[in-house]
């Protein structure tokens, strides 16, 4: 008989059922309470009842959990300092969408050597999230693989659907069932329409193919996620953080019946992926908000201990500690200055 299956599959390793991992690396009642509270605060910021500025800040990706925790400890202190004006949520990004190919994040390849030990990656991700929460910080991540949320979503305060997947029905369906507030990026071309359609689709009930906590393939039905908003991240045609772009976005969102709460990413195409340009972009976002545009509910910054990024792959022993192996980040000193400035201005 002709071979008609697995022509291109070279390996298929069963994963532990989500319930097993949730039991092995369990959330404590205190952690569950913290997650519920942090999500409620973010919902209130989105609907305008909490006047604080929501700042999603942290490394482009977590590749070294030791440096990640050092970062979290510093950020927790800063968050405490500005908590009356700015609600800080740490970027804890474990899944990287690639334009073509590249390292796909700690969950996919936790050993950074191409061995793609996903069960180990899921364990490290849960363990790390719990450590960040225990520092007193809410958590933010991009959810990319539709099975991943079953393993980590209970420890996530806010999540993003990235520019490359906002148009994907699979991701909109997944978002409709997620328990946390969530932002959809505009597409890499800069179009807002896909994000607006995504907010509408994710807000509706959906039925789709998923995996249960027991690891069983399932037909999942959701009630819709009402806490979705847009993230302006610039695109191929240029940045979209300026006052005119924001006004256009508000008009477009309201005209199309989507939430007009806007988060703006100071990284990615809004700063041409240049960490040296990121502070000025961020300061302009804060300037607009301080000038009275409360539709701008928050911003995103890619920040790490050390500025810039380093090429990867390279021998692990040659990696610079605390520096990104994906997109360029601003360094810790710049982060502190920008965050303190935000609290002063708002
Ligand atoms: O935020 C990270 C990157 O911008 C995203 O993963 C795409 O990266 P790439 O274009 O280097 O693949
Ligand atoms: C990949 C990211 O962003 P975007 O989807 O905007 O490229 C990210 O924030 O890590």
UniProtKB/TrEMBL annotation:
Entry-linked Pfam families: DAHP_synth_1
Gene3D superfamilies for the chain: Aldolase class I
The keyword Amino-acid biosynthesis appears for this protein: yes
InterPro entries (alphabetical): Aldolase_TIM, DAHP1/KDSA, DAHP_synth_1
Family matches, as NCBIfam families: aroFGH, PRK12755.1
Molecular functions (GO terms): 3-deoxy-7-phosphoheptulonate synthase activity; identical protein binding
Domain DAHP synthetase I/KDSA: 40-338
Family recorded in the similarity comment: Belongs to the class-I DAHP synthase family.
E.C. no: 2.5.1.54
Functional note: Stereospecific condensation of phosphoenolpyruvate (PEP) and D-erythrose-4-phosphate (E4P) giving rise to 3-deoxy-D-arabino-heptulosonate-7-phosphate (DAHP).
Biochemical pathway: Metabolic intermediate biosynthesis; chorismate biosynthesis; chorismate from D-erythrose 4-phosphate and phosphoenolpyruvate: step 1/7
Keyword terms: Amino-acid biosynthesis, Aromatic amino acid biosynthesis, Transferase
Organism from which the protein derives: Rubritalea squalenifaciens DSM 18772
Protein name: Phospho-2-dehydro-3-deoxyheptonate aldolase
Catalytic activity annotation: D-erythrose 4-phosphate + phosphoenolpyruvate + H2O = 7-phospho-2-dehydro-3-deoxy-D-arabino-heptonate + phosphate
An annotated GO BP: amino acid biosynthetic process
GO terms for cellular component: cytoplasm
């Amino acid at each position: 008989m002709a071979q008609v299956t697995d022509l291109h599959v070279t390996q298929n390793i069963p994963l532990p059922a989500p319930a097993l991992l949730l039991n092995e690396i369990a959330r404590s009642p205190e952690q569950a309470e913290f997650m519920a509270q942090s999500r409620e605060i973010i919902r209130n910021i989105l609907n305008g009842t909490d006047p604080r500025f929501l700042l999603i800040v942290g490394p482009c990706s977590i590749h070294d959990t030791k440096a990640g925790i050092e970062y979290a400890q510093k950020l927790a202190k800063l968050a405490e300092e500005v908590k009356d004006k700015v609600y800080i949520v740490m970027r804890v990004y474990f899944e990287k969408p690639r334009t073509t190919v590249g390292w796909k994040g700690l969950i996919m390849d936790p050993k950074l050597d191409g061995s793609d030990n996903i069960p180990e990656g899921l364990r490290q991700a849960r363990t790390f999230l719990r450590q960040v929460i225990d520092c007193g910080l809410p958590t933010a991540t991009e959810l990319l693989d539709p099975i991943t949320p079953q393993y980590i979503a209970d420890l996530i305060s806010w999540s993003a659907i990235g520019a490359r997947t906002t148009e994907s029905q699979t991701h909109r369906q997944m978002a409709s069932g997620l328990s946390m507030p969530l932002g959809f990026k505009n597409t890499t071309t800069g179009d807002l329409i896909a994000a607006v359609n995504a907010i509408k689709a994710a807000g509706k009930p959906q039925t789709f193919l998923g995996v249960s906590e027991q690891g069983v393939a399932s037909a999942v039905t959701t009630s819709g996620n009402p806490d979705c908003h847009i993230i302006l991240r610039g695109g191929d045609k240029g940045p979209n953080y300026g006052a005119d772009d924001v006004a256009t976005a508000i008009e477009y969102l309201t005209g199309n019946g989507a939430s007009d709460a806007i988060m703006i990413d100071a990284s990615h195409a809004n700063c041409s992926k240049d960490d040296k340009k990121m502070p000025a972009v961020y300061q302009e976002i804060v300037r607009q908000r301080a000038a009275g545009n409360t539709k701008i509910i928050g911003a995103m910054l890619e920040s790490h201990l050390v500025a810039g990024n380093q090429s990867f792959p390279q021998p692990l022993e040659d990696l610079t500690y605390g520096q990104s192996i994906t997109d360029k980040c601003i360094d810790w000193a710049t982060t502190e200055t920008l965050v303190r400035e935000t609290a002063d201005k708002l």
